[in-house]
């Protein structure tokens, strides 16, 4: 999968996408993340990419021209399944969106800053608008990093069997059950017996019950959907 990201602060994307599982996905050639500094398509030598908003009011708006030229340039070599604008007024991101997006070949993310991007770019290019939650970030980059991570780990071959995404929280609308590692007794705090007895059926049943209990306690809304 190729993910292109247009940003005025591409540095913000570097660390989160170049370590751990995202690093491995890219080294294995399963994921290619390419960041593009919008200033390359600035309208003048001052690097201008934003301007005052028509109608007045505080805050700058990212101009049509740099975004138009950046998108057209990228489209000459890549056909995108979705052009995604990261914005607090987009559809709220969740695991089922991550699952669907992980099946695509090429995605383009546009990170907004300031008051956002000129509406005409949204009208004429953007095919999907995503928010990562009901709060406002200073730009779309951290949201893009979150989404790329959530999608990237779902690409077949990125995770091995042990870390398989099939057992993640939310994949079956349940939160994950508690987990334990050695020692079996730490300061008198004991690991549940079932997990030590080595009967896979009993372990599975215990985990399912525990997942249900955790979900009921913390996120009862998840159980209502089904
Ligand atoms: Cl995608 N962008 C910004 N700027 N703020 C957000 C967001 C996105 N999602 C939640 N808050």
Radius of gyration: 22 Å
Strand content: 15-25%
* DSSP, total strands: 9
Largest sheet: 5 strands, parallel
Strands ordered across the widest β-sheet: 2-1-6-5-7
Distance between the termini: 32 Å
Which term fits the overall shape?
A: elongated
The domain tally reads 2
State the helicity in percent bands: 25-40%
What does this protein look like?
With 226 residues, this protein is of the alpha/beta class. The chain folds into two domains: 2-152, SPOUT methyltransferase, trefoil knot domain (Alpha/beta knot), CATH 3.40.1280.10; 169-223, Orthogonal Bundle (Trp Operon Repressor, Chain A), CATH 1.10.1270. Helix content is 36%, strand content 19%. The chain contains nine helices and nine strands. It has helices at residues 11-17, 20-27, 64-75, 95-101, 119-124, 141-152, 193-197, 200-218, 220-224; strands at residues 2-7, 32-37, 50-52, 60-62, 82-92, 106-111, 128-131, 185-186, 189-190. It has a five-stranded parallel beta sheet with strand order 2-1-6-5-7. A two-stranded antiparallel ribbon has the order 3-4. A hairpin with a 2-residue loop joins β8 and β9 (189-190). The chain is elongated. It starts with a strand and ends with a helix. The relative contact order is 0.15. The mean pLDDT is 95. Bound molecules: 6-chloroguanine. The site of 6-chloroguanine has 13 residues, from β5 and β7.
Briefly, what is this?
The chain is an alpha/beta fold and 226 residues long. It has nine helices and nine strands. The chain has two domains: 2-152, SPOUT methyltransferase, trefoil knot domain (Alpha/beta knot); 169-223, Trp Operon Repressor, Chain A (Orthogonal Bundle).
